[in-house]
Design a protein that fits this description.
binds pyridoxal-5'-phosphate, alpha/beta, 2 domains, single chain, 11 helices, Rossmann fold, 343 residues, 6-stranded mixed sheet, 39% helix
Length: 343
């Protein structure tokens, strides 16, 4: 690049940021042709994924964190004060980034299901982390209950409560959804289906609400881990995928937005994450693998030439000691997963 070209890129503002928080959002929409071909999708059918793992904190939750903190500031968070949050790890990491920049102390509560990688990143970013047992809603040791108690016991602390915050839907309705639709239109002319799971429901509800308005023809598909009850199926059974599904619908979830549900096993979620690594060079998490497996199922059912979009919520770097490790897989009932390269 010549000096003039470098100056013109810098002048466009796209690579300038005053803090790490300025590089959140506007993530790429990736096309996955090698993966589509490896799983036998008809030629012309297009699989697209919004690469939220490329946010600086490694997940879609970066979009939410600053908004949660700014809402807390409006409702009385004092400079240098303490914020408390219950999280499956990623919201905590995003908050830790934002809290460092804005000068707040962060207390995070996460269950033992959360990977050690996420816990270590949280501590590295200066968060105080409390780990609770992995128990169902209603149990006083559930991570949300512990977070509420810690916030109440800490003078001046604010419990951010992503599970009830309208900001959690708003950021995705105002940013993630419009970005996704515009990128899909530029890349493929349209979006036939949008496939996404529900943790708090912020991403799913925000994007789906926007699509209902801006692209009513787009079919909205809920991707749910096998064992979760959100797709409407029976008794809760614990499962290994982190961040999506639950033993009860979260408060922000709106089942009226769901046109169709697809249930995906742990094995298929992790198999698709491995396949994305080995066919497209993408290191994505287990919920991304779950989304991808569900998107593939939808794409196989739609007419050839359809355009199916999904979200990659977080990076595979969060799970190197879990499903990316063959020994962990063997110890968790997933023997052989790595041997066929995810195929
Ligand atoms: C890895 C991962 N995937 C998906 C989600 C779900 O996102 P949302 O809370 O917006 O439903 C989360 C949320 O914590 C997550 O951590």
């Amino acid at each position: 690049m010549t000096g003039a070209e470098v100056r013109s890129v810098l002048a466009s503002g796209t690579v300038l940021g005053r803090t790490i928080l300025d590089s959140i959002g506007e993530t790429p929409l990736l096309e996955l042709p090698r993966l589509a071909s490896a799983i036998g999708l008809p030629s012309g059918t297009r699989l697209l994924a919004k690469a939220e793992q490329l946010n600086p904190g490694g997940s879609v939750k970066d979009r939410l964190a600053l908004t949660l903190i700014e809402d807390a500031e409006r409702s009385g968070l004092e400079p240098g004060g303490t914020v408390v949050e219950a999280t499956s790890g990623n919201t905590g990491i995003s908050l830790a980034q934002a809290a460092a920049v804005r000068g707040y102390r962060l207390i995070v509560v996460a269950s033992t299901k959360v990977s050690q990688e996420k816990i270590r990143i949280l501590r590295a970013l200066g968060a105080q982390v409390h780990v609770t047992p992995n128990v169902p809603h209603g149990n006083p040791n559930h991570y949300t209950e512990v977070a509420k108690r810690l916030a109440a016991a800490t003078p001046g602390a604010v419990y951010l409560d992503q599970f009830h915050s309208t900001a959690n839907v708003r950021v995705h309705e105002e940013h993630t959804g419009p970005e996704l639709l515009e990128q899909a239109r530029q890349l493929a002319g349209r979006l036939d289906a949008f496939v996404c799971g529900v943790g708090t429901g912020g991403t799913f509800v925000g994007v789906a609400t926007y699509l209902r308005r801006a692209s009513p023809r787009t079919k909205v598909v809920l991707a749910d881990p096998s064992g979760s009850v959100l797709a409407g199926g029976g008794q809760f059974r614990s499962y290994l995928v982190e961040g999506i599904g639950d033993d009860a619908p979260p408060p922000l979830f709106d089942p009226a937005l769901v046109d169709e549900s697809v249930v995906i096993s742990d094995r298929d979620s992790f198999r698709f994450a491995l396949l994305a690594a080995r066919t497209e060079g993408l290191l994505i998490g287990g919920s991304s693998g779950n989304h991808l497996a569900a998107a593939a199922e939808v794409a196989l059912r739609l007419p050839a030439g359809s355009v199916v979009g999904t979200i990659f919520p977080d990076t595979g770097r969060n799970y190197l000691s879990k499903f990316f490790d063959p020994e962990w897989c063997a110890a968790n009932g997933l023997a052989g997963l790595h041997e066929d390269g995810g195929r």
